[in-house]
Design a protein that fits this description.
four-stranded parallel β-sheet; uronate isomerase, domain 2, chain A; three-stranded parallel β-sheet; globular; TIM Barrel; alpha/beta; 2 domains
C-alpha cells in the first residue's frame, strides 16, 4: 500500500468511471455509452458570457478562466477559511483584488484535495486531461506547471472561445440575459458570420422581483428599451411582450425564472392593477412582493402560450445567505442555500390557467429532492404542459442524477423529463458535465436491462433520447419559430 505522503503523480481518467461495479451491468452500460458518447452537446440553459463568442478574444490566464468565476470552486475553499480576495474573486463593485493570479492558482492547487469525491473534482480532472492534455495530478508541487501549460494553451488560436466551441462539438448553447439587457453581444455574434449557434434566454427576474437590489434601475432600463410606460400594468405587460420578441429575434427559445418559492397566482385584472400600483409606488410589503412574483409566473406562462417559448422555473434557493459576503462581493458567490419547496398547491393557480395547454412546455427544477416522488413526478406525469428538469445545482452530481432517475421514472417516465442541461458559467467544464450525465444515464439504463425491465434496444433508444432527443423537443430546437398567438 502506497504511503499517504507519497501519492501517485499521474492524472488518470478511468474509462469506466461512473459505470456499475458488477461486470455484466458495466458491460451493458459501456455498450450504451459507446453509442452516444460522441453525440453533439446541446446546452439549452447556462450562464456563459456571450461576449466570449462575440469578440472571440483569448482568455488571459488559468485563474481568470477556471478559478475566479467558478463558485463551485471558491465556495469550497471559502468554507475552509480561504479568503476570496486571495483567489482574485471580483468584489461587489467590480474591482478585482490585486492578488497575483499565479499566487491565487497556487493557493487553489495547494487545496485541491478538498474536492475529493465532489463533482468539481470529476469536472476539473476531465478539463485538465481532455482539454489541456495534462497528465500530472494537480497539487502544490505541480501548480506552476499547470499554470504555465494552461496559459501557453490559452495564448493559441486553438483555445479561443469559438475554436473550443467547435472542438467541444456543441450544437446549441444558450446564455441567460436579463430583461434590461440590450443583447449587443448576441447581435455581434450574428453579425460576425460565425456558424456557432449561441442564443439567449429571457430571464426577467430583476424587473419582477421588487426585493432584488437592482429592481429600480432595471425597471428604468426596461422602460428605455421598450418605450413603454412600465409604471402602468398594461404598459408593463406590453414591455415584457416586446422584450420577449427581441429575445426570440436573438434566437431565444426559452425563458427562465428563479424565485425563492414556486408560488403562482391567478388574480383579476383589477387586483393586478392594484398590486402593481403598490409595487411601483413603493408602498409594498413582503407579502406584496411574493404575490407579485407569483402572479408574474402565471403571466409569463400565458405569454409562453402566445409566443411558444419554453418556460423554466428554478425555485427553492435562499439567495445570498451570507450577508457579510453579499455586502463585500455581491451575488453568486457560493452563499445560496437550498430551501424546502412546495409545488402542488403553489403551482395550482397557474395550472388552472395553462396546465392543459399541449403546446406549452413548463420545465420544473428543484433543490428539494424530497419533492421528486411526492410532488414533481406526479405533477409531470399528469399535466400536458409540465416536464421535469434534470438534477440541478447542488444535485448536478452522479449521486444526485441517480436519485433523480430512481425517484421520478416510475411515475413520470423518461419522456416527461428533458434530458440534461449544465446550467454553468464554466465554459470549459461543459463537455465534462455532459459526459457525467451520459455515463450516469447509461448506468441507470443498464441496470434496468440487467434486471429484465428494459430490452437492450429500448435502452439504446432511451440513451439517445436522454442525450439529444428530449432536449431538442423540450426547447423546440428543430421547429421553426411559432406564430404568435393572440392573448385571450
Amino acid at each position: 500500500m502506497r504511503a499517504a505522503h507519497q501519492p501517485p503523480r499521474e492524472l488518470l481518467l478511468d474509462a469506466d468511471r461512473l459505470f456499475p461495479a458488477d461486470a455484466r451491468t458495466r458491460s451493458i452500460a459501456r455498450a450504451l455509452y459507446a453509442e452516444i458518447a460522441g453525440l453533439p452537446i446541446i446546452s439549452p440553459h447556462g450562464h456563459t458570457d456571450p461576449a466570449w463568442f462575440a469578440t472571440d478574444a483569448p482568455w488571459d490566464n488559468a485563474t481568470e478562466l477556471l478559478l475566479a468565476p467558478d463558485h463551485y470552486i471558491f465556495r469550497m475553499l471559502y468554507s475552509q477559511g480561504v479568503d476570496l480576495d486571495a483567489l482574485r474573486v471580483p468584489r461587489r463593485d467590480g474591482v478585482v483584488p490585486a492578488t497575483d493570479p499565479r499566487d491565487a492558482w497556487r493557493l487553489f492547487a495547494g487545496h485541491y484535495d478538498l474536492f475529493r469525491g465532489t463533482p468539481s473534482h470529476l469536472w476539473l480532472d476531465h478539463v485538465f486531461a481532455e482539454v489541456f492534455g495534462l497528465d500530472r495530478r494537480l497539487d502544490a508541487a505541480s501548480a506552476d506547471h499547470y499554470y504555465d501549460a494552461i496559459n501557453a494553451a490559452l495564448a493559441t488560436d486553438a483555445f479561443r472561445p469559438r475554436a473550443l466551441f467547435e472542438r467541444f462539438n456543441i450544437d446549441f448553447l444558450a446564455t441567460t440575459e436579463g430583461a434590461d439587457d440590450p443583447l449587443d453581444h448576441h447581435a455581434a455574434i450574428r453579425a460576425s458570420g460565425w456558424g456557432g449557434r449561441v442564443v439567449t434566454t429571457y430571464r426577467p427576474d430583476s424587473v419582477i422581483d421588487v426585493e432584488h437590489e437592482v429592481f429600480s434601475d432595471a425597471l428604468e432600463s426596461f422602460a428605455r428599451l421598450t418605450g413603454e410606460d412600465v409604471h402602468g400594468w398594461a404598459g408593463y405587460l406590453a414591455a415584457h411582450r416586446k422584450r420577449r420578441a427581441d429575445f426570440r429575434a436573438a434566437g431565444a427559445t426559452a425563458t427562465d425564472h428563479g424565485f425563492a418559492t414556486a408560488r403562482t397566482a391567478n388574480l383579476s385584472t383589477s387586483e393586478c392593477e392594484a398590486l402593481f400600483g403598490r409595487i411601483v409606488g413603493g408602498t409594498w410589503d413582503a407579502s406584496d412582493a411574493e404575490l407579485f412574483r407569483a402572479q408574474m409566473l402565471t403571466e409569463m406562462a400565458k405569454m409562453s402560450v402566445e409566443d411558444g417559448m419554453t418556460m423554466q422555473i428554478h425555485p427553492g434557493s435562499c439567495r445570498n445567505h451570507n450577508a457579510k459576503l453579499f455586502a463585500s462581493h455581491g451575488r453568486d458567490k457560493g452563499a445560496d442555500i437550498p430551501l424546502r419547496t412546495e409545488y402542488v398547491t403553489a403551482l395550482k393557480p397557474m395550472l388552472d390557467v395553462v396546465g392543459n395547454e399541449p403546446e406549452l412546455t413548463v420545465i420544473l427544477f428543484t433543490l428539494d429532492e424530497s419533492t421528486y416522488a411526492r410532488e414533481l413526478a406526479p405533477l409531470a406525469g399528469h399535466y400536458p404542459c409540465l416536464r421535469l428538469g434534470p438534477a440541478w445545482w447542488f444535485h448536478d452530481s452522479p449521486e444526485g442524477m441517480r436519485r433523480f432517475r430512481e425517484m421520478t421514472t416510475e411515475t413520470a417516465g423518461f419522456y416527461n423529463t428533458v434530458g440534461f442541461n449544465d446550467d454553468t458559467r464554466a465554459f470549459l467544464s461543459i463537455p465534462a458535465r455532459h459526459d457525467v450525465a451520459r455515463r450516469v444515464d447509461c448506468a441507470f439504463l443498464a441496470r434496468l436491462v440487467a434486471e429484465g425491465r428494459l430490452q437492450d434496444w429500448e435502452a439504446a433508444e432511451l440513451a439517445y433520447e436522454l442525450t439529444n432527443g428530449l432536449v431538442r423537443k423540450a426547447y423546440k430546437l428543430d421547429a421553426a419559430a411559432p406564430a404568435t398567438r393572440e392573448a385571450a
